[in-house]
Amino acid sequence: RSRAVIKLIATQGRQDLDQWVESYDIFYSNAGIARPALGMESRKIPNNAISASSQWDPNHGPERARLHIRSGRGKTGAWSARHNNRRQWIQIDLRSTAIVRIIATQGRQDHKQWVESYKVSYGVIAKNWKTIGKVSNTFDVFTGNTDQHTVVYRVFRPRIIARYVRINPRNWYKHISMRIELYGKRIGGGMLIV
Fold first, then answer.
1. What backbone phi and psi angles, to 5 degrees, belong to 8?
2. Containing structural domain, residue 14
């Protein structure tokens, strides 16, 4: 992979109107992820903001779904559902509205278990869900993991604006277990800012 050095960025306003951008943010990454993480791995999203339809036991809880988390002190290296069926989900409350562009997933660190595909629902309020790509009673199914350690990134096109994000596994290897991070930019408190 080659690297580029950016020394200058030139911008221009609209030619036909007196409109221009006065300031903007630039995000970069050597890993190819050009948006900041929203806080699963860093724990900026607290444990009580992560919930799930079920958990195998208290050592396999939804708070274990943090990207790159490792097993230790009796806790496992992922969230693991109690049941293996398509009614299982894990939900993240971002605590404020955000533009979410990318999801990253991993399998369970300490066992060969992972989610192979999933759908994503989201909302600004937890009871008013939209499913990504829902058109004519179908929805986008994202390809997940093929092993327990590799991080797989998927881009939401178009981006979503949400406070709540829910991941619903569709297919899995051995058992529903996963670790997650979301990437994007926070845009306000609980309210949508347009």
1. -155, 140
2. 1-34
